[in-house]
């Protein structure tokens, strides 16, 4: 019998699994073997690169890696085959993300397109939009940025002020977005705009697809505490996009945006948790070697971190199996769990490192002290970077306060928070 190439994009993975005994084990072995055979040569140096706070690392090489994945059938696994996907089952998608994380494969550069915009277009987009944009996401030839947050509307998405009005067959856009991940390398952005003059809150918003390479768009990188700049400010000054590049109806942008956020907290979080487990394991080993584990308070924090990781994993499996009261509530609980856990892990990492965490590895280079107040002068190790970057985990993607409001109002039925 001729072996089946599970990386063959023409193979419907869901159909294959339904007809194959032990499909999960075979699929896991195939993913593991492919990664072992391909994370070699020029790609070997990418292992572990490009995570949160390090998205600038080896970007061009990681883009080539993503395109290599695409050429061998490993992108957009869960999408329907008619849209260029593989029709993978939920179990297969979980397996892929977990094996990918276990292989310490590099962070993907196409996450916003593959995991967020693509599924949103499949759910809400027109056939013309699907035909235009989905192939570029599948083969990683077009990258996307997310235009949600603004200076006056960070986690409060309903407060956006960026405005757009229709002029003939063109949307004219004016306003500013901030904390826009990877806008400096993306060709397109999906942007929430206020398209009904005088509207407020979640009414009158629209979800537009906007090209970034045009005279009316200015992208300005924001330097972070880590010294990197994967976030950006984006200014729209009479920027334009075609009238038909609106997803959903005018004024229906809130529901489209909320639909997209549900995709954001899907199966890829299980792969994220494999990475979390590796970080915890490394920190535990460090504590064992340097004696920090002998401190009862450090030992207790490591145990609590292990318990928290198990709770996070159990919640993910339960919600992915459909055992939820509210999709929004389940997503908010997941965000609260992982964001606060990861922030606490950053604090645990510097506690285990001890005094060494207070200075950079180049502190004595040429006798010049490393100035932690000057990001452009700092060379951070992985634990310092983890500590600093995870300050943002409880803010981006919806702050702790916003997540708790969602749970209180939409799940528990408590009165809405008073708003000005």
Automatic annotation (TrEMBL):
One protein family per Pfam: Acyl-CoA_dh_M
Keyword Oxidoreductase on entry: yes
UniProt KW keywords: FAD, Flavoprotein, Oxidoreductase
InterPro entries noted in UniProt: Acyl-CoA_Oxase/DH_mid-dom, Acyl-CoA_Oxase/DH_mid-dom_sf, AcylCo_DH-like_C, AcylCo_DH/oxidase_C, AcylCoA_DH/ox_N, AcylCoA_DH/ox_N_sf, AcylCoA_DH/oxidase_NM_dom_sf, Mycobact_Acyl-CoA_DH
Signal peptide start and end residues: none
Residue span(s) of domain Acyl-CoA dehydrogenase/oxidase N-terminal: 25-139
Cofactor section: FAD
GO CC field: plasma membrane
Sample GO molecular function, one term: oxidoreductase activity, acting on the CH-CH group of donors
Span of domain Acyl-CoA oxidase/dehydrogenase middle: 145-238
Domain annotation Acyl-CoA dehydrogenase/oxidase C-terminal: ranges: 251-412
Organism superkingdom: Bacteria
Similarity annotation: Belongs to the acyl-CoA dehydrogenase family.
Protein name: Acyl-CoA dehydrogenase
Natural source organism: Gordonia desulfuricans
């Amino acid at each position: 019998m001729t072996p089946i190439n599970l990386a063959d994009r023409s193979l419907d993975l869901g159909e294959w699994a339904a007809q194959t005994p032990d499909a999960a084990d075979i699929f896991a072995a195939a993913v593991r073997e492919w990664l072992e055979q391909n994370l070699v040569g020029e790609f070997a140096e990418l292992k572990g690169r490009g995570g949160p706070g390090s998205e600038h690392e080896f970007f061009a090489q990681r883009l080539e890696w993503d395109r290599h994945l695409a050429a061998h059938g490993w992108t957009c696994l869960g999408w329907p085959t008619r849209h260029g996907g593989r029709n993978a089952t939920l179990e297969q998608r979980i397996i892929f993300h977990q094996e990918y994380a276990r292989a310490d494969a590099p962070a993907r550069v196409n996450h916003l397109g593959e995991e967020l915009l693509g599924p949103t277009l499949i759910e809400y987009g027109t056939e013309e939009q699907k035909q235009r944009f989905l192939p570029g996401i599948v083969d990683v030839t077009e990258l996307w940025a997310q235009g949600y947050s603004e200076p006056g509307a960070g986690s409060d998405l309903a407060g956006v002020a960026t405005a757009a009005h229709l002029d003939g067959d063109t949307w004219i856009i004016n306003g500013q977005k901030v904390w826009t991940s990877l806008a400096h390398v993306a060709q397109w952005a999906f942007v929430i705009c206020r398209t009904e003059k005088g509207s407020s809150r979640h009414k009158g918003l629209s979800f537009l697809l906007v090209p970034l390479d045009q005279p009316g768009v200015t992208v300005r990188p924001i330097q972070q505490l880590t010294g990197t700049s994967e976030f950006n400010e984006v200014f729209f000054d009479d920027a334009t996009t075609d009238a038909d590049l609106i997803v959903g109806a005018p004024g229906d942008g809130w529901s489209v945006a909320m639909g997209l956020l549900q995709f954001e907290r899907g199966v890829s979080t299980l792969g994220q948790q494999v990475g979390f487990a590796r970080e915890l394991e490394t920190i535990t080993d460090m504590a064992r070697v340097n004696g920090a584990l002998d401190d009862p308070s450090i030992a207790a924090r490591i145990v609590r971190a292990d318990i928290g990781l198990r709770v996070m994993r159990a919640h993910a499996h339960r919600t992915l199996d459909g055992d939820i009261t509210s999709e929004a509530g389940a997503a908010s609980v997941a965000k609260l769990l992982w964001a606060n856990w990861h922030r606490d892990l950053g604090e645990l990492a510097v506690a285990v490192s001890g005094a060494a965490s207070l200075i950079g590895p180049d502190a004595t280079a040429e006798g010049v002290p490393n100035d932690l107040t000057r990001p452009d002068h700092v060379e951070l190790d992985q634990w310092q970077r983890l500590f600093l970057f995870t300050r943002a985990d409880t803010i981006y993607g919806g702050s702790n306060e916003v997540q708790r409001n969602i749970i209180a109002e939409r799940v528990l039925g408590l009165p809405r928070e008073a708003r000005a």
